[in-house]
Write a structure and sequence with these properties.
alpha+beta; eight-stranded mixed β-sheet; about 15% strand
Amino acid sequence: WRKMAKMEVKTSLLDNMIGVGDMVLLEPLSEESFISNLKQRFDHNEIYTYIGSVVISINPYKLLPIYSPEKVEEYRNRNFYELRPHIYALSDEAYRSLRDQDKDQCILITGESGAGKTEASKLVMSYVAAVCGKGAEVNQVKEQLLQSNPVLEAFGNAKTVRNDNSSRFGKYMDIEFDFKGDPLGGVISNYLLEKSRVVKQPRGERNFHIFYQLLSEASEDLLNKLKLERDFSRYNYLSLDSAKVNGVDDAANFRTVRPHLASLVVEDKNAMQIVGFMEHETQSVFEVVAAVLKLGNIEFKPESRVNGLDESKIKDKNELKEICELTGIDQSVLERAFSFRTVEAKQERVSTTLNVAQAYYARDALAKNLYSRLFSWLVTRINESIKAQTTVRKKVMGVLDIYGFEIFEDNSFEQFIINYCNEKLQQIFIELTLKEEQEEYIREGIEWTHIEYFNNAIICDLIENNQNGILAMLDEECLRPGAVTDDTFLEKLNQVCATHQHFESRMSKCSRFLNDTSLPHCCFRIQHYAGKVMYQVEGFVDKNNDLLYRDLSQAMWKANHSLIKSLFPEGNPAKINLKRPPTAGSQFKASVATLMKNLQTKNPNYIRCIKPNDKKAPHIFNEALVCHQVRYLGLLENVRVRRAGYAFRQPYEPCLERYKMLCKQTWPHWRGPARAGVEVLFNELEIPEEEYSLGRSKIFIRNPRTLFKLEDLRKQRLEDLATLIQKIYRGWKCRTHFLLMKRSQVVIAAWYRRYTQQKKYQNIKRSAIVVQSYIRGWKARKLLQELKHQKRCQEAVTTIAAYWHGAQARRELRRLKEEARNKLAIAVIWAYWLGFKVLPATVMRPFLTQPASVIKQESFSSHDKYVRREYRKFFRANAGRKIYEFILQKLMQKYFLEMKNKMPSLSPVDKNWPARPYLFLDSTHKELKRIFHLWRCKRYRDQFTDQKKLVYEEKLEASELFKDKKALYPASVGQPFQGAYLEINKNPKYKKLKDAVEEKIIIAEVVSKINRANGKCASRIFLLTKNNVLLADQKSGNIKSEVPLGDVAKVSMSSQNDGFFAVHLKEGSEAAGKGDFLFSSDHLIEMATKLYRTTLSQTKQKLSIEISDEFLVQFKQDKVCVKFVRGNQKNGNVATCKRKNNRLLEVAVP
């Protein structure tokens, strides 16, 4: 995976394209399709689109996540057409061409105000800064180049109705690099600062940012030093209706430019410090800014002189005083400069007074010149700081951020020279584009064909021609003595340019404009390349003259302020030059010529910026506004020029890499040259030869349809390849997952066996400890018992001796008493026999003591009856019981002695038992029979092994499950349950099956599996393990199905004499995908019993066994009824199965 992550992904501009990424490929090409394509991409946040190597940028008016450091790395060192259109792609192409090919580059950024030109230039510079080298010096140079932007934006940008941060000057920056591509420094050139904005702003617009920033964030101490107040309304030069702009934080921007001037605490470095401004220089700059602000508050009042001439006086000299204190100018000198004008001609010097209008003009001219020269000084000072410090040869990349073509309701001198500059840029753009196309065709060996295009050189000549050009006539009119007005200038234009096809005026001699009411008399119209623009001549002469009275220049030079003094070198009396200074138009024309010359020495790169709407809101695309910009930017003309020859070209290597899958000969690898591979590919696809040409290093495709056909074929082929890759990947993934699961199962089994053995050892250990403790306790108790026994024996001896002595004494006493009784009995018996009446003992005692011869016979006769009566009473009371007990004892003895000789055999099944001899022994005879039977059963069981016990337990389980329920059960009673009917461990045929089954096999038998479709039988090996039921092919031994015991729901069978049974699976289980199983087996009772016992052991739940002659079986999505019927079988006594219909499977049982 790590290797895959490091692989470079080959992409292209054509991948996942929204709309068309390159307008050269747009089909069909029209203004509507062009605008529609831009809108489609804009709606999906694709703000960049190509026209060949030109980038079209649409301002999104919101932040997009496409300028992150990750994006910089994504576009770094990538082919221009390799990724989606982006400004980074053009920046990278320009930088790599400069670094690797040693070609000076320039990036031309054009577009109207609010189109995002300034942001585009920042993005270009930030990208170049990010991809070039690193190091302390290099980083310092990059930081200075980047931080020059905030300074110039503060002094040169303003809020307009179209843009909250509009650049009111043109900027061209040359960034200088060494041979490694690291920046060394730079040079900035500025063009045509809109200095008229200093004194007057259109409604809804602001003055330059720096005025509002200074008043918003400067500290009170600084404002006091500059003699300013924070209230905007105090200054006439500041527009109040747009003083606060939503989304613009003047305070934060001022902190970026110069924060310690706001707080008077030196903090982190800011823009001006980084660029290189010293502390006193910064203070001087803001003093000049404050002076410009306060100049607007000077007001004049008219006064009449004695000679009748009008002159002007300053109303409130307090403002003038503060200005003089800031600038170090003598108040009287500056006051006189506002009231008088001195004109010198050769040796003559004439001083005239200024009326109020002229005084206001002089004040505004001074303010405009002061601010304009301050801005030029800032640019010069920045150049001193950022210029390269080495004299070695340098590579240069120029970035041009200048006004775009402007068409307003009221177009004046500023719009005229701006549009002139854009005409020159369009001219050089077309020339360089055609030149680049021609050079590429020649380089590749492709025949060059002439391309028809509109050449705007005729428009440029109309404006800049030294003889009849508009600028030349404007300069001539400004230098002409006499009354010079804008109307005289227009009249001259009508005379000279009347026949020019791109010039229109109501006053011209051409009759076709006499009835054109849309063209006022004070205006003229020029048909530029971007469309017709009507210019009002009002102010052309004054703005071109751009006069500053010499008295004001000299007053400024006399200032004690070093910066102001350096801004007006012409005020030095020692260097008085009576020559008229060059006009604004001629200066700008010279600057444009220098710029064009500079651009022609570099390889151009173009960024065309477009504003989608006038509301400065995201997600709004005004098609009319965009169409207007597309026209005056000449984008359709650019596309037509690019498409005039070949619409698409690409090096052979990326072309072959992208389309090689379309040809069997080039896929997957082409071993030969890339050109030969592309030629084989195009021949295989049968693309007509007129649709493409083969250059030295590139292939040229004439029609975009051919390219789109290739893309469609590639897309279809990629889908086929993706399907193939998915198939292979899924197979690999499943195999990998299986092997991983297998390895995991082995590891888990090993760890589980280890765990169980540890548990078993721990249990044995604990049991041994318990047994040891019990044995020790038993020994201790036994010893205690022995000691107690000895003690009791000793006590018993003493007790026995005492009792023995007592018994001896009592025996002797009894003997003596017995002798006495015997003597008495003898006497009584004798008397009885003699017939004498027995006398009481007191009477008989003398006879007993005398000899019998002495006793007379007649003395006993009287007692005869008494003796007999007493003796009979004693005999009846005791003799019967004694006789009964004696006879009963003799009968019991005889009964047991006879039973000893008549005992039956020890077999538990022997039911013989001797007959009962006496009725009174009936209960005893039965109990004795029961005890004897239990004893011989126990004795018989004690002879069993564990295996034999298991067999009898299974037989007992089978009896409980099937006795009197299944007709097949009686036949199975005498059959032993063997289980392993297939010798899998011994038979080499089943070696593969043995290796696949790692658990102990409980039963292995060949069964007949009933086909779900037709009821036919197929032989399968039925394996039952501790956890699973397995079905394997009898021939190959491959496992067909594996069902966990937990997924078995129940087993169904009939009550008849057949071997069919169904195994029902739980719904939703993984094994239940194909449905239940229906088998036929010769050992049904054994299989069902073992399956029942194994399931109970593993799942702790009893398996339901249903015995019915009709039950349902789930086959895939259908439920089929299995019905058992009686019938005569052709195959003898074998049950047969037949599929009756989709819902019935009938089993015929003999």
